[in-house]
Design brief:
Blueprint: H1 2-8, H2 14-39, H3 51-56, H4 68-110, H5 116-121, H6 126-142, H7 150-189, H8 195-228, H9 234-260, H10 269-283, E1 296-300, H11 306-314, E2 332-338, E3 343-346, E4 353-354, H12 358-375, E5 387-393, E6 399-403, H13 419-431, E7 437-443, H14 453-460, E8 467-472, H15 474-480, H16 483-490, E9 501-504, H17 516-529, H18 546-586, H19 595-612, H20 618-646, H21 651-667, H22 670-694, H23 704-717, H24 723-736, H25 744-773, H26 777-782, H27 789-807, H28 817-829, H29 836-862, H30 866-872, H31 881-925, H32 927-933, H33 937-965
Parallel strand pairs: 1-6, 1-7, 2-5, 7-8, 8-9
Antiparallel strand pairs: 2-6, 3-4, 3-5
Main location: mitochondrion
Catalytic activity: GTP + H2O = GDP + phosphate + H(+)
Enzyme class: hydrolase
Length: about 950
C-alpha cells in the first residue's frame, strides 16, 4: 500500500490517479492474498493436493466458498471503498500539514530579537532629519578632539556583519525546517503535497523575506548612528571587557579551589608583596629599607575625602565615620587583592568579614575604631602603630595603600599638644620613601588656596614623578566654583605642584548610609551630565571616576614594584652574606638557632627534668621530707608543747598537757604545715635536679634564665590538693593516740632524736646569750674587742641569775617578785641600774640554757632505761616523758613523710608537669617574654640572620612569581 501511495505522486490528474491507484491496489491485494494461502500447508506433508482448489477459492463471511464471478465483484467494491477512504486521508493530511507549517513559522518569528526599542529610539519625520544633522555636526566637532579607536570601529563593523549572518542563518534554518516538516509529512502520509500547503509556504517565505529586507535597511541606517555615538558607549564596552576578565578570573580561582580541595591555595602576588612589607616592618622599626619598597600613601587635609577614596577603590565602606571628628588616628595599611568573595581580614586575626553583609561591615568598622583607639596611649591623639588588613574581592585592583591621619591646621582642646607636628612628621616619613606613590587628596568644595597638603607634597616630590592628584567632592565644587577653575586644577595649571595625573572623583552625597554601589552610580550619573564635559572642555574621560583612578594607581604601583624589587633583593643578599660571615667567625661549631628553636629546646630539657622526679628513690624522698618537716615543726614543738609541758611540774600533769597540746596541734596547724613542707620539698628536689643538669658538661647556660622563670611561675601557680590535708589529719591523729614505745630500737631512735633536737635548740640558745653577753675573755684579747655598756649590764644580771639557778636546780620558768627585787638591789650595790623587764629578758635565755642542759642529762639517763619504762611505766624512777613525747612526734613525722611521698610521686609531680607545660605554652606565644629571657649576642645574631634569610627568600619568591606573570 505504501509503495502504491508513493507512486501516485508521479501521475497528474485526479482520474488518472484514482485509476492508477485502483489497479495497483487490486494487483497488490490479490497477489498478497493468494501468496498467503499458498504458504499454508495441510496436515501431513506440505504438498499441494486436491483440496487446494477448494482452499484457494474466495470464501464468504461464514467460510462458505464464493464463486469466482462474485469474488471479483467484492474485490472491486473493496477497491472503491479504499479509494473513498484515501480521499479523506489526502484532504486531512493537506490541512494538517498547513497548520503545522504555519505554527513552525510563528515559532521562528518569535525567535527573532525584539526590535521594538528601535521604534522608540529612532526619531520619525522631521525629528529624524534634525537628529541626523545634529549627529553629523557633533561628529565633525569632536573628530579633532577625540580619536576613534580603530578597534572599536572594526568592532562595530564586525557586529553588523555578524547580525547579517545571523539573520541569513535563521531564515535559511526556518525554510529548511519548513521543507523538512513538509517532506516528513509527505513521507508519512504518502508524500502528497496539497496546493494549500505549497501556497501557504510560498506566502510565508515571501513575507519573511520582505520583513528581513526591511530590517536590513534599518540596520544599515543604524550603522551610521553607532559610529557617531561610539564615544558614548566606549566606557560601557570597557566595563564589559573588564567584567569579562573578572568573571574569568573568578572562574579560574573557583576551578583551582575545586581541584586543590583541602590543599593550600596559592597566594596571590599582592598578598606575597604585602607579607614582604610586613616582614620588613617587623625586622626593625628603625630600618629604612622597608620604606624603600613601593606603596600608595594616601595624604590630604582632614575631612578632604581620603578615607572615602580608599573605600571607593576597595568597593566597601570599611572605615568608621565621624561628623568633623578625627577618625583616622593611626596608619592603616590596606592590601587589595583579587578573590572570588568580597571579604576583609586583619593580619593578626583569622576571622573574615563578609563585606556583602551589613552586620559584618558594622563589626569591621567597630574593630577598626577599637584598634585605633587602643593604639593611642598616654594621652596621645595619633599613633605610629600600623593597623594591617587585607581586602579581597572580584575586580579589585591589586595594590597596597596606607591611609594616614588628615593634616590639620588648628588643634582643639581635646588634642595632645604635639598632634599637629606628629601628623606632619608621620606624613613626611611615609612620603619620603623615594618609591612611594603619593595619592594627594584635595577637597574640591573648598578654596584650593586653603589646602595644607600640596606644600608638603611639593617638598617631598618637587618634580611630581610619583604624585597623583585627586580632586574630591566635584559635585559640590561644580555648584560653588567656576568650572573653568576646576578645569585648571585638573589640567595642572592652578598649582605649582606637579603630578603624574590629575583625577576628579565624587565620594558620595553626604549620606552615611549610602552603599558603594549607590555612590558609584551617583558618580557615573554626575559625570554623564556634568558641565565639565561641554564641547569646549579639556577634561578627558579617563580623568574622572574612581574606577579610572584605581586602574591608574594600580598600573603605576606595579610599574614601580618591578623597577625596585630586585634592588632590594640584592641589598638583602649582601646583608645576609655579612651576617653569615660574622656567625662563622664567632660561633663556628654552632648552628644558628633563633629564639623559637632555642625555646623548644629549653622546653624539652625542663620537661625531662620533671620526668626525672620519678627517678628519685623513696628513701631519699622520705629523708628530704623528714628534714623539711622537722625544720618547720621544731620551733612549735619546743615552744608550744615540750617546754610548757616539761616545766609544768608533776609527771601526770606533763602527760596530760602533752596530750592536749598534741591533739590541738594535729587538728589545727600540723596538716597544713605538713603539706607546706611537702610542696617545698618538691621544689627543692626539682631545683636540685636542675642544678645537677647545669653542672653537666653539655649544659648550655643560654637557657638558665628561661628555666628559672618557668619554674618560678609554675611553682607560684601550684597548689596542693585540698583533700590531702583532711587525709593527713586523720593519719596524724591516729598516730598520736599511741603513747607506748614498742621496742628498744624505737626507744633508742627516740632518745637520739631528743638529744639531737635539744642540742640544736641549746646551740641556738648559746648563740642568743653570746650576742647578749658579748665575746668572752679570750676572744676579747685575741681579737681586740671590748664589751658594750649593754653587754656589761647583761653580764652582771646573768651572774646574779646563775646564783639563783645554782641554788635551786628545779626552779620554775618564771622569777618571783622577791627574786626580782633581790636581783635588782644586788645590782644597785654594784652600781648597775636595771628594771624588772630587763631582768626578765636576761632570765629567759639563761633559764632555757639551764633547762636544756638538764634535758640532755635526762636523755642520757633514759638511754638505758627502756626496760624500767616497760615494767614501771609512768611510775619509773627516771622521768622519760620527754623521750616518749619525741617518739610520738617521730612517729607522726614518719607516717606523714610516707603519705607525702606517695602523693608527690602519684599526683603532685604530674600536676606540676601539667602546670609547667601551661607556662611554657604561654611563654611560647609571648614574644616579649622570650626576648627578655633568651638574650645574648649569639641569640641576637642568629635572630637577625634568620630574619634576613627569610626576607630574602620571600623577595626571591615574589620576584619569580612577578616574572612569571609578565
Amino acid at each position: 500500500m505504501l509503495r502504491a501511495a508513493k507512486q501516485i505522486t508521479r501521475h497528474r490528474g485526479t482520474n488518472e490517479r484514482i485509476t492508477y491507484l485502483c489497479s495497483k491496489i487490486v494487483t497488490s491485494t490479490s497477489n498478497s492474498y493468494y501468496s498467503t494461502l499458498n504458504q499454508k500447508k495441510y496436515k501431513g506433508g506440505g504438498k499441494s493436493n486436491g483440496w487446494s482448489k477448494y482452499f484457494l477459492a474466495p470464501r464468504g463471511p461464514k467460510g462458505w466458498t464464493i464463486p469466482p464471478s462474485r469474488g471479483y465483484g467484492m474485490i472491486v467494491a473493496r477497491v472503491l471503498r479504499g479509494a473513498l477512504k484515501l480521499r479523506y486521508i489526502l484532504l486531512g493530511g493537506a490541512i494538517g500539514g498547513g497548520v503545522t507549517l504555519n505554527k513552525k513559522y510563528e515559532d521562528w518569528k518569535d525567535g527573532l530579537p525584539d526590535l521594538k526599542w528601535l521604534e522608540e529610539v529612532m526619531p520619525k519625520g522631521e525629528k529624524w532629519t534634525q537628529f541626523s544633522k545634529a549627529l553629523a555636526e557633533f561628529g565633525s566637532s569632536v573628530k579633532d578632539v577625540i580619536e576613534i579607536d580603530p578597534r572599536l570601529k572594526q568592532l562595530s563593523e564586525d557586529k553588523i556583519a555578524e547580525w547579517r549572518r545571523w539573520f541569513d542563518t535563521r531564515l535559511d534554518d526556518a525554510i529548511e525546517a519548513a521543507d523538512y516538516q513538509g517532506s516528513t509529512l509527505n513521507e508519512s502520509k504518502g508524500e502528497i503535497k496539497a496546493k494549500t500547503t505549497v501556497t501557504a509556504l510560498s506566502l510565508s517565505n515571501d513575507e519573511s523575506r520582505r520583513k528581513y529586507e526591511a530590517l536590513q535597511s534599518q540596520v544599515e541606517n543604524l550603522q551610521t548612528e553607532v559610529i557617531n555615538v561610539q564615544i558614548k558607549y566606549q566606557r560601557e564596552l570597557e566595563k564589559m571587557e573588564k567584567e569579562n576578565r573578572e568573571l574569568r578570573q573568578q572562574f579560574l580561582i573557583l576551578k583551582q579551589n575545586k581541584k586543590t580541595g583541602t590543599k593550600k591555595i596559592k597566594k596571590s602576588l599582592i598578598d606575597m608583596y604585602s607579607e614582604v612589607l610586613d616582614e620588613l616592618t617587623g625586622y626593625d622599626s628603625s630600618y629604612s629599607m622597608a620604606d624603600h619598597l613601593p606603596r600608595v600613601v594616601v595624604v590630604g587635609d582632614q575631612s578632604s575625602g581620603k578615607t572615602s577614596v580608599l573605600e571607593s577603590i576597595a568597593k566597601a565602606r570599611i572605615f568608621p565615620r565621624g561628623s568633623g571628628e578625627m577618625m583616622t588616628r593611626a596608619p592603616v595599611k590596606v592590601t587589595l587583592a583579587e578573590g572570588p568573595y568580597h571579604v576583609a581580614q586583619f593580619r593578626d586575626s583569622d576571622r573574615e568579614y563578609d563585606l556583602n553583609k551589613e552586620s559584618d561591615l558594622s563589626e569591621l568598622r567597630r574593630e577598626v575604631e577599637f584598634r585605633m583607639r587602643a593604639s593611642v596611649r598616654g594621652g596621645k591623639t595619633v599613633s605610629n602603630e600600623v593597623i594591617s588588613m587585607t581586602v579581597k574581592g572580584p575586580g579589585l585592583q591589586r595594590m597596597v595603600l596606607v591611609d594616614l591621619p588628615g593634616i590639620i591646621s588648628t588643634m582643639t582642646v581635646d588634642m595632645a599638644a604635639d598632634t599637629k607636628d606628629s601628623i606632619h612628621q608621620m606624613t613626611k616619613h611615609y612620603m619620603s620613601n623615594p618609591n612611594a606613590i603619593i595619592l594627594c587628596i584635595q577637597d574640591g568644595s573648598v578654596d584650593a588656596e586653603r589646602s595644607n597638603v600640596t606644600d608638603l607634597v611639593m617638598q617631598c616630590d618637587p618634580l611630581g614623578r610619583r604624585t597623583i592628584f585627586v580632586l574630591t567632592k566635584v559635585d559640590l565644587a561644580e555648584e560653588l566654583a567656576d568650572p573653568d577653575r576646576i578645569r585648571k586644577i585638573l589640567s595642572g595649571k592652578l598649582f605649582n605642584m606637579k603630578a603624574l595625573g590629575y583625577y576628579a572623583v565624587v565620594t558620595g552625597r553626604g549620606r552615611k548610609d549610602d552603599s558603594i554601589e549607590a555612590i558609584r552610580q551617583y558618580e557615573e550619573d554626575f559625570f554623564k551630565n556634568s558641565k565639565l564635559f561641554h564641547r569646549r572642555g579639556v577634561i578627558m574621560p579617563h580623568q574622572v571616576t574612581s574606577r579610572n583612578l584605581s586602574m591608574a594607581v594600580s598600573d603605576r604601583f606595579w610599574k614601580m614594584v618591578r623597577e625596585t624589587i630586585e634592588q632590594q633583593a640584592d641589598a638583602f643578599k649582601a646583608t645576609r652574606f655579612n651576617l653569615e660571615t660574622e656567625w662563622k667567625n664567632n660561633f663556628p661549631r654552632l648552628r644558628e638557632s633563633g629564639r623559637d628553636e632555642l625555646f623548644e629546646k629549653a622546653k624539652g630539657e625542663i620537661l625531662d627534668e620533671v620526668v626525672n622526679l620519678s627517678q628519685i628513690c623513696a628513701k631519699k624522698w622520705e629523708e628530704a621530707l623528714s628534714e623539711k618537716l622537722w625544720d618547720k615543726l621544731s620551733n612549735y614543738v619546743f615552744e608550744n608543747v615540750y617546754l610548757p609541758a616539761a616545766q609544768s611540774g608533776s609527771q601526770n600533769s606533763v602527760n596530760t598537757m602533752v596530750d592536749i597540746k598534741l591533739r590541738q596541734w594535729a587538728e589545727q596547724s600540723l596538716p597544713a604545715k605538713s603539706v607546706e613542707s611537702g610542696w617545698e620539698t618538691l621544689q627543692t628536689q626539682f631545683l636540685m635536679l636542675m642544678e645537677k643538669a647545669r653542672k653537666s658538661p653539655d649544659h648550655d647556660d643560654i637557657f638558665d634564665n628561661l628555666k628559672l622563670a618557668v619554674i618560678d611561675e609554675a611553682i607560684r601557680r601550684h597548689s596542693w590538693e585540698d583533700k590531702a590535708i583532711d587525709m593527713l589529719r586523720v593519719i596524724q591523729l591516729n598516730t598520736l593516740e599511741d603513747r607506748f614505745v614498742h621496742d628498744k630500737t624505737e626507744w633508742d631512735h627516740a632518745v637520739k632524736f631528743l638529744e639531737t633536737s635539744v642540742k640544736d635548740k641549746l646551740d641556738q640558745t648559746e648563740h642568743t646569750l653570746s650576742e647578749m653577753m658579748g665575746p668572752g675573755q679570750l676572744t676579747r684579747i685575741t681579737h681586740w674587742k671590748s664589751l658594750t655598756e649593754d653587754q656589761s649590764k647583761r653580764r652582771h644580771v646573768k651572774h646574779e641569775l646563775d646564783k639563783i639557778l645554782r641554788t635551786d636546780e628545779k626552779h620554775l620558768p618564771t622569777l618571783s617578785y622577791d627574786e626580782l627585787t633581790t636581783v635588782r638591789k644586788n645590782l644597785q650595790r654594784e652600781g648597775v641600774e636595771v628594771d624588772t623587764d630587763y631582768i626578765r629578758q636576761t632570765w629567759f635565755p639563761t633559764y632555757r640554757r639551764h633547762f636544756l642542759k638538764q634535758a640532755l642529762h635526762r636523755a642520757h639517763d633514759c638511754r638505758k632505761a627502756y626496760y624500767l619504762y616497760t615494767q614501771q611505766g609512768t611510775e619509773c624512777e627516771i622521768s622519760c616523758s620527754d623521750v616518749v613525747l619525741f617518739w610520738r612526734i617521730q612517729q607522726v613525722i614518719k607516717v606523714t613523710c610516707n603519705a607525702l611521698r606517695q602523693q608527690v610521686i602519684n599526683r603532685e609531680a604530674r600536676r606540676l608537669d601539667k602546670e609547667i607545660k601551661e607556662v611554657l605554652d604561654e611563654f611560647s606565644e609571648d614574644e616579649e617574654k622570650k626576648a627578655q629571657l633568651l638574650t645574648g649576642k649569639r641569640v641576637l645574631l642568629a635572630e637577625e640572620l634568620i630574619k634576613v634569610r627569610h626576607i630574602q627568600e620571600k623577595l626571591e619568591e615574589f620576584i619569580n612569581c612577578l616574572n612569571q606573570e609578565k
